[in-house]
UniProtKB/TrEMBL annotation:
Listed name of the protein: Receptor-like serine/threonine-protein kinase
Catalysed transformations (reactions): L-seryl-[protein] + ATP = O-phospho-L-seryl-[protein] + ADP + H(+); L-threonyl-[protein] + ATP = O-phospho-L-threonyl-[protein] + ADP + H(+)
Bulb-type lectin domain: residues covered: 17-150
Region forming the signal peptide: 1-21
Keyword hit for Cell membrane: no
GO BP of this protein: recognition of pollen
Length: 796
C-alpha cells in the first residue's frame, strides 16, 4: 500500500518538473529576461549545471552558472561563475541577449550594457551550456567564439585551466558575491601564489613568503603557467604544486574555490546526500591568510570557537560587522622618546612591514631602534635558538596572529599615560576546524516529509482533499517505521551516536576479545547489531560527569580526516565510559613492521599520511589537541595500507585539567618515543608529537625499535645500544649512509632519494631543541614536494 502511494507521488513529481520550461541553448535574436529568472534558465544536457539570472541582493541580479540542485532552498545555489559580479543588474527589464551581430550582451534597466562577450559573427551562433559547466558561444562548425572557462571568477571546475591570463578572485563574503581581497594567480616568476590584495596593502601568503620557491618545492623555470584540477581529484600545476584530494580516484562533482577567507579549497559532492564537503585545502591554519582581521589586530584560532579577531591593546575595532577594516588607535603618539612605553604581548607574531631588522640584538637595542623612528609602532622580538634574539621594528602592525608555538613577543608602543589593559575586544567567527568534516549526517525523516507535504498541498489544487488522506496515511506509516532509528540519532548534529552499555556489552560478547591496551583503556573487538565491526575502548579513568565527557567527546567526534580513526559513538552510563571506533583489519604499524609486510613505498606513504593528520590537528586545530603518544602501536593500517592514527584527543579526555599553560603535571607517552621536554620538565607543545613522529620514522626506516636494547647492527660491527637516534646520527656522516641504516627487510629495493629525504626529515624531527624541529605542516610540505618530483632539491 505504502509503496504504491509513493510510486504515484513520484510520477506526479515528474510530471510537474517537466512542465517548467528550461532551455538547452539560446539562439541569435533571443534573450533571457530577469523577470522570468525562474524559467529562463539554460540547463546542461546532463542536468548538472544551470545558467541564468541569479539573485545576489534585493532586486539585484547577476548572470551566473550554478550547480543544479533541486533540493536547494532560498536561492542558496552553489555558484561557479558570474558575468557581472561587480555590477548586478536591476530585477526589472534586465536582459541577456544574443544579438544578430553575434555579440552577447547583458543589458540592465535603462538600456545600460553591463557586460558583453565582445564577439561578432555573421553566421548563426548559439549559446550552449556544456556538461562540464562551461558556457560556450558556438558557431555551426562548432568553433568556440567565447567561453566562460576563459574568465573564471572564484571557482575552477574540473578541466578548466588556470593560465597566465586568468586568475581567481575570492568573493567579499559568503553572501556578498562582489570581488574580495584574495587572488590566486601565476606570479611573474611562474609560481602559483595566493595573494592578499587589500585596499591599502598587498602581500603574498602562500606559499610561505619566507621560503624561496625551490624551498617550497616550486619550479620557477617552467613558464607554461598552467594549472588544472581533473575530475578524479588530481591537481597539477606547471610550477610543480601537485596534489590529489583526500577522496581522489573517482569521478564526482568537484570544484576548486578561492574562498572569501583567503583559503583555496577543493569541494566534492556526496551525491547521495547532495552535500559538499572539503576534500583538500591549500592552507592548514585558518590564520595564515593575510588581512583576514585587518590592521592593528590579531587572529587566533581554536576549534571550539573558530577563528577570532581581536584588536591590539589600545586599539578599537572600526567596523563590527566587517573585521577586514581592522582597528584604529585610541591614542595619539608623540615622537618624543620619553613619552612612549612598550607593552609586551607574548605569543603574537606580526608578519611583514619590518622597518628594520637586527639579528642577535639585545632587548634594549631593540627598544632604542624603535624609539629613534617616529614611524615605529612597536617591534617583534623573537628567539631564534642558540641564545640569539632577533629584532624587527614595525612601521605597520599587520597580519597579526596568536600562536602558542611562536617563540617571541611583540612590544607595542603606547603613550606613557595609557591605561590600556591586555584585554581586547574580540570577534566571533565562522570556520571551525570542522571544515574538513564530511560525516554523513543523518537527515531527520520528518522534515523531508513535511516539506514534501507542503509542496504537494500547494501544487495539487483540485486533488487536494483526496491526497490529504492518502498522505496522512503515508506520514503515519513512515513515522512509525522511523521512530526506532531516530532515538539513536538524537545526536545527529555531531554525527555520531550514543550507545547503551548493554548494547556494547552484547557487541563485544561481554568484553571477551581484547585487541589492545593503553592510553587509559582496554580495547575490545565487537560487532554492532548492524554488523559493523568496531573497536571499543573502555576507559579506566571515569571521573568526569556525563555532561563534561559528552562535551569533549563530541569535539573529538567532529574531528575528521582520512588518516584519523573515526569515532562512531560513545557510551556514558553510570561509571562506564566507552568509545566506539571503526575497526582496522590490517592491524597496527607495529605488527606490520615486525612481520615485514611493508615495502619502502608503503612506508613512505604511511609516513606522509601520518604527517598529514598531525599537521591537520596541530595547525588547523592549533595547539588545542596534541596526541602525546605517537608510536607504531597507535598507527593503524586500513585495507590499502593507508595509516589511520588512533587515540587522538584522548590525552585531553583523560587529563582535562592539566593542559592549561601548556604544562602537564604528569608525564605521558611511551618510553623510547618521548620528547626530552617531558623529562626536562619544559613546556609541552606540539613539538612533542613531532619528536615522537621522528622516532617512528626512524623505526620504519631502520626496522629497529627504540624500546629494545642491545640489538646488533646488520654488519655486526657496531653494537646498537638502544639509542636509536644517536646511532643513526653517527651513521649520517658516512658516505652512502642509507645502506648502513636501512631495514634489512627492505634490502636494496628502494628509492634512494625518497628514503634519504625520509631519514633527513626524521633526524630533523628528533632534534633535542624543540625550536629546531620542523612543524608537522613543514614535514608534509617536504615529503610531498618530493613525492611528485625526485629531482627536487631538499633543503636539508
Ligand atoms: C547555504 O548553503 C551553505 C552550504 O551548503 C550553508 O552553509 C548555508 O548555511 C546556507 N545558507 C542558507 C541561508 O541556507
Ligand atoms: C592521480 O594521483 C594519484 C596519486 O598521486 C596517482 O596515483 C594517479 O596516477 C594520478 N592520476 C592521474 C590520472 O594523474
Ligand atoms: C612545464 O609544465 C607543463 C605543464 O605542467 C609540462 O607539461 C611541461 O613538461 C613542463 N616543462 C618542463 C620543462 O618541466
Ligand atoms: C561596515 O561594514 C559593512 C559590511 O561591509 C558595510 O556595509 C558598512 O557600510 C560598514 N560600516 C562602516 C561604518 O564602514
Ligand atoms: C593602525 O594603527 C596605526 C597607528 O598605530 C594607524 O596609523 C593606522 O591608521 C591604523 N590602521 C587602520 C586600518 O586604522
Ligand atoms: C620629555 O622630554 C622633553 C624634553 O627632553 C620634556 O620637555 C618633556 O617634559 C618630557 N616629557 C615627559 C613626560 O617627561
Ligand atoms: C651575539 O651578540 C653577543 C654580544 O653582542 C656576542 O657575544 C655573540 O657572539 C653574538 N652571537 C653571534 C652568534 O653572533
Ligand atoms: C583610564 O581609564 C578610565 C576608565 O577606564 C578612563 O575614563 C580614562 O580616560 C582612561 N585614561 C586614559 C589616559 O586613557
Amino acid at each position: 500500500m505504502a509503496f504504491s502511494i509513493s510510486l504515484f507521488l513520484l510520477v506526479l513529481l515528474f510530471s510537474f518538473q517537466s512542465s517548467s520550461s528550461s532551455l538547452l541553448s539560446l539562439n541569435k535574436g533571443s534573450s533571457l529576461s530577469v523577470e522570468k529568472h525562474a524559467e529562463d534558465v539554460i540547463v546542461s544536457p546532463n542536468q548538472m549545471f544551470c545558467a541564468g539570472f541569479f539573485q545576489v541582493g534585493e532586486n539585484a541580479f547577476s548572470f551566473a552558472i550554478w550547480f543544479n540542485d533541486p533540493h536547494t532552498h532560498n536561492n542558496n545555489h552553489t555558484v561557479v561563475w558570474m558575468a557581472n559580479r561587480e555590477t548586478p543588474v536591476n530585477g526589472r527589464l534586465s536582459k541577456l541577449s544574443l544579438l544578430n551581430s553575434g555579440n552577447m550582451v547583458l543589458v540592465g534597466a535603462g538600456q545600460i550594457t553591463t557586460w558583453s562577450s565582445n564577439t561578432a559573427s555573421d553566421a548563426p551562433v548559439k549559446l550552449h551550456l556544456q556538461d562540464d559547466g562551461n558556457l560556450v558561444l558556438l558557431d555551426l562548425q562548432g568553433t568556440i567564439l567565447w567561453q566562460s572557462f576563459d574568465t573564471p571568477t572564484d571557482t575552477l571546475l574540473p578541466g578548466q585551466l588556470l593560465t597566465r591570463y586568468t586568475q581567481l578572485v575570492s568573493s567579499r563574503s559568503q553572501t556578498n558575491h562582489s570581488p574580495g581581497f584574495y587572488k590566486m594567480l601565476f606570479d611573474d616568476d611562474n609560481v602559483l601564489r595566493l595573494i592578499y590584495d587589500g585596499p591599502d596593502v598587498s602581500s603574498t601568503y602562500w606559499p610561505p613568503p619566507w621560503l624561496l620557491s625551490w624551498q617550497a618545492g616550486r619550479f620557477n623555470y617552467n613558464s607554461s603557467r598552467v594549472a588544472v584540477l581533473n575530475s578524479i581529484g588530481n591537481f597539477t600545476s606547471s610550477d610543480n604544486y601537485d596534489f590529489s584530494t583526500d577522496d581522489h580516484g573517482t569521478v564526482m562533482p568537484r570544484r576548486l574555490k578561492l574562498d572569501s577567507d583567503g583559503n583555496a579549497r577543493v569541494y566534492s559532492r556526496n551525491e547521495a546526500l547532495k552535500k559538499w564537503y572539503v576534500s583538500w585545502q591549500f592552507i592548514f591554519d585558518a590564520c595564515t591568510s593575510h588581512g583576514i582581521c585587518g590592521a592593528n589586530s590579531t587572529c587566533s584560532y581554536d576549534p571550539k570557537r573558530g577563528r577570532r579577531c581581536s584588536c591590539l591593546p589600545g586599539y578599537r575595532v572600526k567596523n563590527h560587522s566587517d573585521w577586514s577594516y581592522g582597528c584604529e588607535p585610541m591614542f595619539d603618539l608623540t615622537c618624543s622618546r620619553n613619552e612612549s612605553i612598550f607593552l609586551e604581548i607574548q605569543g603574537v607574531e606580526l608578519y611583514g612591514y619590518d622597518h628594520n631588522f637586527v639579528q642577535n640584538s639585545t632587548y634594549i637595542n631593540c627598544v632604542n631602534l624603535c624609539l629613534q623612528d617616529c614611524n615605529c609602532k612597536g617591534f617583534q622580538y623573537r628567539y631564534d635558538g642558540n641564545q640569539i634574539f632577533s629584532c624587527f621594528t614595525k612601521s605597520q602592525l599587520l597580519n597579526g596572529r596568536r600562536s602558542p608555538s611562536f617563540n617571541g613577543a611583540i612590544y607595542l608602543r603606547l603613550p606613557i599615560t595609557n591605561n590600556f589593559s591586555k584585554e581586547e575586544s574580540v570577534s566571533a567567527d565562522d570556520h571551525v576546524c570542522s571544515v574538513k568534516l564530511h560525516k554523513d549526517y543523518v537527515r531527520k525523516p520528518e522534515n523531508r516529509l513535511v516539506r514534501f507535504f507542503l509542496w504537494l498541498a500547494t501544487a495539487v489544487g483540485a486533488l487536494e482533499v483526496i491526497f490529504f488522506f492518502l498522505i496522512w496515511g503515508f506520514l503515519i506509516w513512515n513515522l512509525k517505521t522511523s521512530s526506532a532509528d531516530q532515538q539513536g540519532y538524537h545526536l545527529a548534529a555531531v554525527g555520531f551516536r550514543k550507545y547503551s552499555y548493554l548494547e556494547l556489552k552484547k557487541a563485544t560478547k561481554g568484553f571477551s576479545q581484547e585487541i589492545g591496551r593503553g592510553a587509559g583503556g582496554i580495547v575490545y573487538k565487537g560487532i554492532l547489531s548492524d554488523q559493523r565491526h568496531v573497536a571499543i575502548k573502555r576507559l579506566y579513568d571515569a571521573k568526569q560527569g556525563e555532561g563534561e565527557f559528552l562535551a569533549e567527546v563530541s569535539i573529538i567526534g567532529r574531528l575528521n580526516h582520512m588518516n584519523l580513526i573515526e569515532m562512531w559513538g560513545y557510551c556514558a552510563e553510570g561509571k562506564h565510559r566507552l568509545l566506539v571506533y571503526e575497526y582496522m583489519e590490517n592491524g597496527s604499524l607495529a605488527q606490520n613492521l615486525s612481520s615485514n609486510t611493508l615495502d619502502w613505498s608503503k612506508r613512505y606513504s604511511i609516513a606522509l599520511g601520518t604527517a598529514r593528520v598531525l599537521a591537520y590537528l596541530h595547525e588547523e586545530c592549533l595547539e588545542w589537541i596534541l596526541h602525546c603518544d605517537i608510536k607504531p602501536q597507535n598507527i593503524l593500517l586500513d585495507a590499502s595500507y593507508q595509516p589511520k592514527v588512533a587515540d587522538f584527543g584522548l590525552s585531553k579526555l583523560l587529563n582535562r585539567n592539566n593542559l592549561n599553560n601548556s604544562s602537564f603535571s604528569m608525564i605521558r607517552g611511551t618510553r623510547g618515543y618521548m620528547a626530552p621536554e617531558w623529562v626536562l620538565n619544559l613546556a609541552i607543545t606540539s613539538k612533542v608529537d613531532v619528536y615522537s613522529y621522528g622516532i617512528v620514522l626512524l623505526e620504519m626506516i631502520t626496522g629497529k625499535s627504540p624500546t629494545t636494547t642491545g640489538v646488533q647492527n646488520i654488519d655486526g660491527e657496531e653494537p646498537y645500544n638502544g639509542r636509536l637516534v644517536t646511532w643513526v646520527r653517527e651513521k649520517r656522516s658516512a658516505t652512502s649512509w642509507l645502506e648502513h641504516i636501512i631495514d634489512p627487510a627492505i634490502k636494496t629495493n628502494y628509492d634512494e632519494c625518497k628514503m634519504n629525504l625520509l631519514a633527513t626529515v626524521a633526524l630533523d624531527c628528533v632534534e633535542e631543541d624543540k625550536d629546531v624541529r620542523p612543524t608537522m605542516s613543514h614535514v608534509v610540505e617536504m615529503l610531498q614536494s618530493h613525492e611528485s618530483d625526485p629531482r627536487n632539491i631538499i633543503n636539508a
